[in-house]
Design brief:
CATH topology: Amino acid/polyamine transporter I
Structural class: mainly alpha
Order of helices and strands: EEHHHHHHHHHHHHHHHHHH
Largest sheet: 2 strands, antiparallel
Strand content: under 5%
Number of domains: 1
Oligomer: single chain
Number of strands: 2
Bound molecules: 4-fluoro-L-phenylalanine
Length: about 450
């Protein structure tokens, strides 16, 4: 950290923000969730809609969110309050900060459980459990793990404690430095996996599955899932990016920075997909629509067949955990900052309180895969329900409200000033897209997608 502007210290330069924001954006959403939801929705057309959502909705909303954070220079709830006061907006816009808070807790509750699966895979890899296995065997190993409630709880707890430790220590210290090394390492490993898939998988079928545009497979609920995932993967609508925006130096270009983060995030998701699907199609018995299990039953087959599979596989799951870790930190941080700023808690107590509540909620996700697997409401387990509620209802709603607030309530002078709009040719384009395209697209997709989900 270098200088102090307003109430919070700012980060040194543009790259520290890029690395921290990428650390938040790149996580289980890219490596675990994107491939499996693309698989469930038939590939190609879904991927294209997803890319369109990133470009037309995700990036403009991300610019808006970073801008609100930098303008407010507090934790998200208080940044919103500061901006609302500055422009004389109605106080109920404050609800936007609260909504983000609620979504963050819900998301982190299941995020930590899935990160726990990746943690559990590290010792499995290291002890050679996957050496020479076929897809059926990896599926058995995975299913056995899911049945073991206590083991899932143990790893969920370990992951939550890891997150608490960093958030208690103060999120900005060391985070940028760590991300600088770990993100490139993850990137390199993904390239190794891609090369493996190219040589040993059915690469052309994998690629055509991911990129051939077959409209007949696309449903309205799939479009909503793509939109919701665009928010999820870019860490939008929860206050995480707003919180990081608060630390951004005033002279850094928000537009360029956001484009870099979104590009890195998208590339990682596409690489994960391109590593996974060729393996799916090279082996009979793996269903591309295998759901949340997909990552955990495909890649171990590849590691099991590699010379240095134990090492590379172990390293891969370590990096997945680290990617998830930097995302989880950014999910917990805004709520903790608010509790500490407003409620007089010290950071440690605030973190412990919030993490314990989130951990307890996560037990519902753990049980969804074993004891409660049979309990379904509207065809959904507890985990499905939380995922549905966050990704397909609350995140799009939060994104919609951010677009409406910045596009219609905030005076253009404020966003022009913060985004250096006087000099920039991109400002009018961004403003127009945020005002008209984003609300219309999110509104229509949300209503029609929800209708399609329950009709
Ligand atoms: N963007 C993260 C991922 O793709 O894994 C998930 C996430 C992190 C969502 C932080 C929201 C957030 F605030």
């Amino acid at each position: 950290m270098s200088s102090v502007e307003g109430d919070v210290p700012t980060w040194r330069g543009r790259w520290t923000f890029i690395m921290a924001a990428t650390g938040s954006a790149v996580g289980l959403g890219n490596i675990w969730k994107f491939p499996y939801i693309a698989g469930e929705n038939g590939g190609g057309a879904f991927v294209l809609v997803y890319l369109a959502c990133i470009l037309l909705v995700g990036i403009p909303v991300m610019v808006a969110e970073v801008m609100l954070g930098r303008r407010g220079r507090h934790s998200p709830v208080n940044s919103m309050r500061a901006v609302i006061t500055e422009v004389g907006a109605r106080p109920y816009w404050q609800g936007l900060g609260w909504l983000g808070w609620l979504i963050a807790v819900l998301v982190l509750s299941f995020y930590s459980v899935i990160a726990g699966w990746a943690l559990a895979y590290i010792p499995e890899m290291a002890t050679g459990a996957f050496q020479g296995v076929n897809p059926q065997a990896t599926k058995d190993i995975f299913d056995t793990m899911l049945q073991d409630r206590n083991r899932l709880i143990l790893w969920h707890t370990v992951f939550m404690v890891m997150t608490v430790v960093v958030v208690t220590a103060g999120v900005t210290r060391g985070l940028g430095a760590a991300a600088r090394v770990l993100m490139p390492a993850l990137f390199v490993l993904l390239i190794i996996l891609l090369i493996f898939s190219y040589w040993h998988g059915d690469f052309s079928r994998g690629l055509s599955f991911l990129f051939s545009f077959d409209v007949s497979k696309l449903t309205l609920r799939g479009v909503l899932e793509a939109l919701g995932h665009a928010f999820f993967t870019l860490s939008l609508g929860v206050g995480a990016i707003m919180a990081y925006g608060a630390y951004m130096p005033a002279d850094v270009s928000i537009g360029k920075t956001v484009l870099t983060v979104a590009l890195l995030d998208t590339v990682v998701a596409l690489m994960a997909g391109m590593a996974i699907f060729p393996i799916v199609f090279a082996h009979g018995g793996i269903d591309p629509g295998a759901g949340p299990a997909l990552l955990f039953v495909t890649l171990p087959v590849a590691f099991g067949a590699m010379q240095a599979g134990i090492l590379i596989g172990g390293l891969f799951f370590i990096l997945v955990v680290i990617a998830a870790w930097s995302s989880a930190i950014s999910l917990l941080e805004p709520g903790v900052a608010w509790l500490a700023e407003n409620k007089g808690f010290n950071r440690f107590t605030a973190t412990l309180l919030l993490a314990t509540a989130t951990w307890a909620l996560g037990l519902g996700t753990v049980l969804s895969f074993n004891d409660w697997a049979g309990y379904k409401v509207a065809g959904m387990t507890f985990f499905d329900g939380i995922d549905f509620l966050t990704s397909r209802v609350l995140l799009p709603l939060s994104g919609l409200l951010i677009a409406l607030f910045v596009g219609w309530v905030l005076t253009p002078t404020v966003s022009k000033d913060e985004l250096n709009g006087e000099q920039s040719a991109a400002w009018p384009v961004w403003y127009w897209v945020l005002r008209y395209i984003c609300p219309a697209a999110i509104g229509v997709v949300l209503v029609m997608g929800l209708y399609d989900s329950f009709a």
